């Protein structure tokens, strides 16, 4: 199954990618830049795979490398919603620089815009009310303050596609929690319950979307500017997966979420309220309440707005689409 081709005159979907690049974040951003269905309004940065300052540096460097310095980068929060500075950084997974320990030089042409990420998100949501999709690939720390800056943000934002959560499966930080939810569970719980149109893509589906060694070989042979950029980071990501997951392939978490924004029919979705555990040994646990049972007592889910959660994915179609997009230089 491929994404439906765009028809002449059809409007591109406006997206802002909030991310912590990050190897699979970089892949997702590059796929977005190569997706004719999308107009990337900007990148906002957060912590998670790296600290926020490094995420900003990587976002600027990536855009400069592929010639897209026209896209603004707004730097996000350096602390969690609760102002915690001791956040968990997944450097074993992505390398200390987030891109496989290459220690790339900083971008020379561009710097972040003056606005912080949350203000940028609110501004764009007001400028294009109902039309902006935020693709969130890291902890949700920049989105929660947007709710305080503008209480009508949940109604003005078109959709929030969240890469995060582990629905009815173990997490990847510990058995309870997926990394982005663990990074800022307070922010995540706020976004899941704010009433915005939220589509959550968790590792219960992204762990099924695997880039094999043979796929990587094909990417390398294509030698586009996008695959050249990804070559070294991917080598690190493959090593990490071999060592940690005992697989000869890597999970395409962030590209899968990005492609859910391009073509949601790549996933099967279920609707229900999601709450995120904010403390204790299950901190970061995402719990989805499906609508197929009526609970007699009041629960923490009662009366909460519902979100859509991906429960199945057409994994081969996602891998194929991602590869198609990265292997060609430009349209
Ligand atoms: O803590 C982590 N452990 C992982 O194995 C891992 N693999 C990928 N990631 C990043 O976190 C999100 C998925 O949980 C994605 O945005 C990856 O960048 C990970 N984070």
UniProtKB/TrEMBL annotation:
Gene Ontology CC annotation, any one: cytosol
Entry's Gene Ontology molecular function annotations: inosine nucleosidase activity; protein heterodimerization activity; uridine nucleosidase activity
Record-given protein name: uridine nucleosidase
Keywords: Cytoplasm, Glycosidase, Hydrolase
Keyword flag Cytoplasm: yes
Highest taxon of source: Eukaryota
Organism expressing this protein natively: Panicum miliaceum
GO biological process: purine nucleoside catabolic process; ribonucleoside catabolic process
